[in-house]
Amino acid sequence: MKIFLVALGLSLVSMPAVWGQYKAVHVKAPFQMEPIKEYVYPNRNFSVVDFGAVKGGIADNTKSIAAAIDACHKAGGGRVVIPEGEWLTGSVHLKSNVNLYLSENAVLCFTDNPSDYLPAVMTSWEGMECYNYSPLVYAIGCENVGLPEKAC
């Protein structure tokens, strides 16, 4: 029983390191306001190159980018790195705890093939919820997804 409790205690203590943490951001406001919780991504990088992506804007990297996002998500979060260069892709579907980071001079070039944006996803069009082609970058039902300021 003691071994189980010690193991349980160790796993609970180590969870924040695995799944990331939050830092409190205090805002001076003319009214009472709870601190804003800002997610701190785990210090892990997943380069799309390690998952088979090829720069140059010719090869379709959709599956490689999706594999990097999936590995990052399964590892508990971190940063998916798009290195410098042009990277051809279809839609990019983010998952929880993933920070999609475009390095300086990195460009995502999205294909013009409509089938690269299927299956249809829940989205909105002129204020109406509907199923439609996937947006270029998409996340639904996710928490703690990020596109750093320089990437936008």
**Helix and strand string, N-terminal first?**
HEEEHEEEEEEEE
Shape: globular
Average pLDDT number:
86
Query: pLDDT under 50 segments (min length 5)?
Result: 1-19
How far the N terminus sits from the C terminus, by CA atoms, comes to 52 Å
**Beta fraction:** 25-35%
Write down how many β-strands occur, each being a DSSP E stretch of 2 or more residues.
11
Biggest sheet details: 3 strands, parallel
Major sheet: arrangement of strands: 3-4-7
Tally of contiguous helical segments: 2
Q: Helix/strand/pairing class, anyone?
A: alpha/beta
Helix content: 10-25%
Describe the structure.
By secondary structure, the protein is an alpha/beta fold. Helix content is 20%, strand content 31%. The chain contains two helices and eleven strands, in the order αβββαββββββββ. The strands form five sheets. The protein has a three-stranded parallel beta sheet with strand order 3-4-7, covered by helices on one side. It has a two-stranded antiparallel ribbon with strand order 1-2. The chain has a two-stranded parallel ribbon with strand order 5-8. β9 and β10 (128-132) form a beta hairpin. The longest helix is centred in the N-terminal third of the chain and has 18 residues, at 2-19. The radius of gyration is 19 Å and the shape is globular. The N and C termini lie far apart (52 Å). Mean pLDDT is 86; it is low at 1-19.
